[in-house]
Amino acid sequence: MVNEVLAHTDLPLKDSIELYNTTAGTIDISGWFISDATSNYKKFEIPTTTTLSAAGFIVFDEDD
Question: Fewer CB within 10 A of the end CB, N or C, for the chain?
């Protein structure tokens, strides 16, 4: 689930998105895509072997 989005930031903050696993098990999110552009839904691919633990969080920022 998309838990938080920080957009249109001013330095030193960075635009970021936080994903949250609402389940009781680990989820492999390798190969999922995140984008802020309707013209390119595959703008950023989550790296291979990326997992999200049960009730865990992961954050990606504009540097990713």
Answer: N
What angle is formed at CA 52 by the lines to CA 46 and CA 58, rounded to 5 degrees? 70
Rounded to whole angstroms, what are the CA distances from 47 to 1, 10, 12, 26, 29?
A: 18, 27, 25, 16, 8
CA 39 to chain CA centroid, nearest Å: 19
Q: Rounded to 10 degrees, what is the CA torsion of 45, 51, 56, 62?
A: -20
Tens of pLDDT, residues 9-27:
899 999 999 999 999 999 9
User: How far apart are alpha carbons 46 and 61 in whole angstroms?
Assistant: 12
Please state the pTM of the whole predicted model: 0.86
Write out the two tokens for 13. Answer: 């903050």
